[in-house]
Design goal:
Layout lengths: L6 H38 L6 H14 L6 H25 L7
Helix pairs in contact: 1-3
Length: 102
């Protein structure tokens, strides 16, 4: 039997595909939230970068992480997620027309 025909392989792959789709949905949701937060911060004259908040967020996620994702893996994940969301939020905000200029 080919691995693509193995019911166990097919089942795991189907579940992985569903998990991947949920991940993309959640990352897109996070990007939208970051874009909204950054827009508000700019309107208020706040810095969009808050290293203390990021540190506290990682501490909270470390405490909430039941595994099997390791602490190092969690930090590696967010080392990619935070700049990605910031970059995509910036792109989103740059494409939105400012109020009153429509």
């Amino acid at each position: 039997m080919e691995q693509g025909e193995d019911p166990t392989v097919v089942s795991f792959r189907t579940q992985i595909d569903a998990a991947d789709e949920r991940l993309v949905e959640l990352i897109n949701q996070r990007i939208g939230l970051v874009a909204g937060l950054h827009a508000h911060k700019r309107e208020q004259g706040y810095s969009t970068v808050d290293p203390d908040r990021e540190r506290k967020m990682l501490e909270r996620l470390d405490a909430a992480n039941a595994g099997p994702l390791s602490d190092a893996g969690l930090r590696q994940l967010y080392a990619a997620v935070i700049p990605l969301c910031t970059q995509e939020a910036r792109r989103m905000n740059d494409t939105v027309e400012p109020a009153g200029e429509r």
